[in-house]
Amino acid sequence: MKEIVVLSGKGGTGKTTMVASFAALAKDKVMVDCDVDAADLHLLLQPTMGEPREFWSGQHAVIDEEKCTRCGLCEDVCRFAAIKSLHIDHLACEGCRFCYHVCAEGAITMQEKLAGYWFISDTRYGPLIHAKLGVAQESSGKLVAQVRQKARLLAEERGLDLILSDGPPGIGCPVISSLSGANLALIVTEPTLSAMHDLDRIMSVCRQFGVPALVFINKYDINEENTSQIETYCTSNGVDVISKIPFDNVVTEALVRGLPLVEYSKDGTGRRVEMLWQTILGFLHR
Amino acid sequence: MVISVASGKGGTGKTLVATSLALSLAGSRRVQLLDCDVEEPNAHILLKPEMHTRESVCIPVPAVDEGKCTHCGRCAEVCAFHALAVLKDRVLVFAELCHGCGACSYLCPEDAIEEVGREIGIVELGDSGGVDFVHGKLNIGEAMAPPVVRKVKQHIRPVGTTIIDAAPGTSCPVMEAVSGSDFCLLVTEPTPFGLNDLALAVEMLRQLGIRCGVVLNRTGVGDSGVEDYCLREGIPILLRIPLDMEIARLYSRGIPLVEGMPRFRQAFLDLFESVARLVPQGAKR
């Protein structure tokens, strides 16, 4: 089984647009949306939503006011400023249990947190595993690990040999959780100085986790000088730039219609994305 | 007054808005810009500040004195993050899992645990054309962005205007960045993605009790979903920026919008005035 994850460093470069098109092109696969705090893939794949399944993760402290003697020790030891006037701020509490351990009166208990929901949904392109992290919840890395594991199990169960994963922006916790152990990372970038700066950082993360990367340049004609700089930079770092597409309004039009680009535009830009997918398949099975 | 700039969806123009707002105000008032997107900070590319100070961001992690340790296992038992494992003859520390809460050190009966700093990122301070600049950078391979964001925010000045550029999304690094602000500008685009992620960001701000308004970027394409949503939810749209290849090209070269197209300066000053009117008197400084 192979797993390909689409990343970018900088947000909004076109990760989900690409994954939705690959979903329409690839055979025998499971799709997984690893951007659990702003999941968008379902907007293009239009699934019949599966049952929400609870995701419990982490804990937060609760003070029993009957038992509390207001000694203030819990407030003193908390490094996350989560206890103010013996009231626990659940958004700030990291669930470290320090207060629970030091309270001499046994007035503090730890409660499990319902941190979000995940779903196995059906799309006309195959199964989609996606999730919704509760608003203002941490644990996004753990929820990503959860959806990836479920995708793997489902693929095994149904004899599917590809996992197509839409990753989150950035380089931190949920990105590392999406990336580690994947077979290939496709990095979607654009020729802006910001995206180029971020490309460098996400490429380093891929290297550090030993995941081979390929680069794809979106909207290459916004700045062709930057585009050739990206190509030179990638080549000198031993990373292939496998394709590029121009800025094209059909991408937004397809999105507004709720369709993968390759289904909305069969020629021009859509055709280029189709060829890109063939190239990726070549790398995946090399 | 602290104004944060967030978005839900990435790539909608947060940094463009934050930098142009800061530069527009710089002539007439004291302004600082804090780039709190510590995973992928970009504001420095547009503002090109001269950095004068660099600070290391460390989180305290346990260091066990094996001479004092009796391998009783108490530290591993109290650690909620599984960052310690006690074997028969030694203690293993998994520093990358440690949140730096300090429980192990405090609760060790032998006083055998000391805390040492582990660097997870840096904070840099500089100056750029009248804008005081601060940003944080998470080290490559590190997972925990919030402590770096916290360290950047320690530089918020009590007077003047502070503009915070947040990361995309709605999870902990974003909450850390926007919490405590007097107002949050949500930058989005008129597409189904822009709408979906705007709604998530609004939900987050409501939980945090922060007022918000929308900056709609790349108008002229897409659909009316965001406009309809804002009308329905009573969220003001405070600025509209049209889809324009010239704006995209300027951004690609790292040129702030108000420098490349100075006619936008007034729009950003008006944006600031609109925000100031929406923030209660007590919060203004």
Task: From the structure above, extract its key features.
heterodimer; A: 286 residues; alpha/beta; Rossmann fold; Alpha-Beta Plaits; 2 domains; nine-stranded mixed sheet; two-stranded antiparallel ribbon; 11 helices; 38% helix; B: 285 residues; two-stranded antiparallel sheet; elongated
Strand order across the largest sheet of chain B: 3-6-7-2-8-1-9-10-11
In CATH, the topology of the largest domain in chain A is named Rossmann fold
Helix coverage percent of residues of chain A? 25-40%
Query: Would you identify the CATH H-level superfamily of the largest domain in chain B?
Result: P-loop containing nucleotide triphosphate hydrolases
Shape-level CATH architecture of the largest domain in chain B:
3-Layer(aba) Sandwich
Alpha plus pi helix count of chain A: 11
Task: Summarize model confidence as the mean pLDDT of chain A.
Answer: 95
Order of helices and strands of chain B: EHEHEHEEHEEHEHEHEHEHHH
Radius of gyration of chain B: 22 Å
Mind sketching the topology for me?
The complex is a heterodimer of chains A (286) and B (285).
Chain A (H helix, E strand, L loop, with lengths): L1 E6 L7 H11 L3 E5 L7 H5 L7 E11 L9 H5 L5 E2 L2 E2 L9 H5 L5 E16 L2 E8 L6 H19 L3 E5 L6 H7 L4 E6 L3 H16 L4 E5 L6 H13 L3 E5 L4 H9 L3 H4 L4 H16 L2
Helix pairs in contact in A: 5-6
Chain B lengths: L1 E5 L7 H13 L4 E5 L7 H5 L2 E15 L9 H5 L5 E3 L4 E3 L9 H5 L5 E16 L2 E8 L7 H8 L7 E5 L6 H7 L4 E6 L3 H17 L3 E8 L5 H9 L3 E6 L2 H8 L4 H4 L4 H14 L7
Parallel strand pairs in B: 1-8, 1-9, 2-7, 2-8, 9-10, 10-11
Antiparallel strand pairs in B: 3-6, 4-5, 6-7
Helix pairs in contact in B: 1-11, 5-6
